[in-house]
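Repro:
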Amino acid sequence: MLIQHEGTERFEQLIVAHHDQAFTRQTSRCFRRLGWQVYSADTAAEARRLTQALNAAVLVLDTELPDESGWLACAKLTGEQPDLKVFMVSPRRSAEQARFADFVGAAGLVWRYGGLRALAEEVDGALLPAAG
């Protein structure tokens, strides 16, 4: 997404790592319409490789990936790349999941069935500069 902050421009890259291909396609389409450059990954290992290679700003990460827990992948990624914003997508909503998202360094936790609008608002809202 082309974002202007105090006269600077940058094109935002986003990676979607989710086990459900239909969710990945819908999410990718949604964010492309919003101006993001979107890449997809099927596994946590592929998501890590892409975030490092592309220096992506945002990762939308499933909590249940086939090769590794999304929670563990998030903890690894936020430890290696502190500027990366990781948004966890979970099939369940609970206070425990929200606490765990904070623990692993996620920028946000989104309920999968809350809709793409909620995900887009969560991502865009986290990237806006704080009001001073």
